[in-house]
């Protein structure tokens, strides 16, 4: 297939813990060298992945699912996702318990993923029926709570905040309420929380000469190999972030669901419907699966 390519596919990827299994083959031998001949990988934030695809700066990206509502021409790669069947741990709302959610009026929000923002808006507006204003803020818990009633943390900052939970309470004497938003979503809907999927820019296959079947095979094989190496990933990432190896292993194996299955697709349908209903996203068309 390499000889057929007009150029390498430009891949926008995310250097967080939760996509690590999806990226296994792209970051580890024996397949890394071969894949690097076909893909040029750039690491960025989830929201930046979506912007690069929309701007034509990338051909394929691991994008927040909200990107489909704003760039409906994206082609979705089947079978791969970052999702949660119940608790996810890496998307949390932190609230002072004496207030509780019902008293929240302002939320300091990490804006690196528009999807998490949309899910939070759905929970506040539709399920909790609590009016709240979201204020963009860097993902630093103490400064977030200094300017707002609650803090929305995603990705590694959320995991680190959970890991520091007991130590923070010991330091400050203040207990906090840590709400897992995937668990809250599942409690109301009975459906998976889907955070991200691989998406291909319309026209990218023609421009690069890549074949859809080969692209899907590469990404699904990388996912499968990553899931077969969770112990190795836990060891690697325990040296990168201040989270114990066993916690990382449990997170990757039990909190994150990496398969875009029928239940996830139903969850996405409801997400797009409710996000449009509460004004968090524009109305979305049906997903186009590659």
Give the arrangement of secondary structure elements.
Elements: E1 9-14, H1 24-27, H2 32-36, E2 39-44, H3 46-54, E3 60-64, H4 67-70, E4 75-76, E5 79-84, E6 91-95, E7 106-109, H5 114-127, E8 133-136, H6 141-147, E9 150-154, H7 156-163, H8 165-172, E10 177-180, H9 181-189, E11 193-200, H10 204-208, H11 212-227, H12 230-238, H13 245-255, E12 257-260, H14 262-277
Parallel strand pairs: 1-2, 1-3, 7-8, 7-9
Antiparallel strand pairs: 3-11, 4-11, 5-11, 5-12, 6-9, 6-10
Keywords:
globular, 14 helices, 290 residues, D-Maltodextrin-Binding Protein, domain 2, single chain, 12 strands, 2 domains, five-stranded mixed sheet
**CATH architectural category of the largest domain:** 3-Layer(aba) Sandwich
CA-based gyration radius: 19 Å
| Helix content range | 40-55%
List the secondary-structure elements in sequence, H or E: EHHEHEHEEEEHEHEHHEHEHHHHEH
Query: Which of globular, elongated, flat, extended, rod-shaped describes the shape?
Result: globular
Extract low-pLDDT stretches. Answer: none
Name the structural class. Answer: alpha/beta
For the sheet with most strands, the description reads: 7 strands, mixed
Question: N- to C-terminal separation?
Answer: 18 Å
Q: How many β strands by DSSP?
A: 12
**Average pLDDT reading:** 93
């Amino acid at each position: 297939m390499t000889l057929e390519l007009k150029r390498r596919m430009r891949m926008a990827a995310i250097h967080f813990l939760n996509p690590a299994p999806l990226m296994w083959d792209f970051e580890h031998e024996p397949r890394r060298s071969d894949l690097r001949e076909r893909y040029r990988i750039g690491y960025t934030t989830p929201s930046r992945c979506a912007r690069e695809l929309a701007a034509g700066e990338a051909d394929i990206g691991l994008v927040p699912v909200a990107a489909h509502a704003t760039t409906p021409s994206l082609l979705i790669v089947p079978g791969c996702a970052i999702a949660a069947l119940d608790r996810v741990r890496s998307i949390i709302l932190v609230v002072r318990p004496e207030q509780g959610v019902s008293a929240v009026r302002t939320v300091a929000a990490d804006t690196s993923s528009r999807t998490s923002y949309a899910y939070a808006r759905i929970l506040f507006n539709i399920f909790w029926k609590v009016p709240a204003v979201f204020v963009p803020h860097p993902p630093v818990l103490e400064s977030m709570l200094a300017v707002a009633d609650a803090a929305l943390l995603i990705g590694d900052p959320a995991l680190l905040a959970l890991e520091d939970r007991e130590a923070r309470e010991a330091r400050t004497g203040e207990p906090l309420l840590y709400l897992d938003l995937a668990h809250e979503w599942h409690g109301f809907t009975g459906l998976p929380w889907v955070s991200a999927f691989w998406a291909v820019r319309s026209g990218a296959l023609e421009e690069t000469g890549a074949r859809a079947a080969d692209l899907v095979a590469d990404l699904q094989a990388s996912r499968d190999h990553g899931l077969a190496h969770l112990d190795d990933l836990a060891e690697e990432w325990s040296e990168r972030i201040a989270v114990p190896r066993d916690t990382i292993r449990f997170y990757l194996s039990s909190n994150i669901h990496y398969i875009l299955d029928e239940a996830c697709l139903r969850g996405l349908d409801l997400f797009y419907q409710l996000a449009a209903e509460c004004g968090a996203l524009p109305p979305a068309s049906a997903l186009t699966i590659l």
